[in-house]
Write a structure and sequence with these properties.
Radius of gyration: 15 Å
Helix content: 25-40%
Number of strands: 2
Strand content: 5-15%
Strand order of the largest sheet: 1-2
Shape: elongated
Largest sheet: 2 strands, antiparallel
Amino acid sequence: MDLFAQMVAEKRLGPAEAERFRPRFSGRNPELAEVLQALASEYGLPYSDLAEAAPPAELLGAFPAKLLLKHELLPLRRLGDKIELATGRLFDVAGLD
């Protein structure tokens, strides 16, 4: 299974978006990070390399762990009265409510 089909199956990407983005990679099977960077750029969102992320423990503790795991969300930092979240499921907004 190619990466785009896998992302659709995992609900990380909609079928229409997969077909729209697939040609950008010239028929090759890109790395997940490449696709996520392209999606972030397309939708005007920041891309964060989570290998270097270290969310504050008090921020992680502010959310139910079950919710964060279920929706694959990671709170990164507080920005005023908002919280910046990381997710690999750009189109799964259920956990953001």
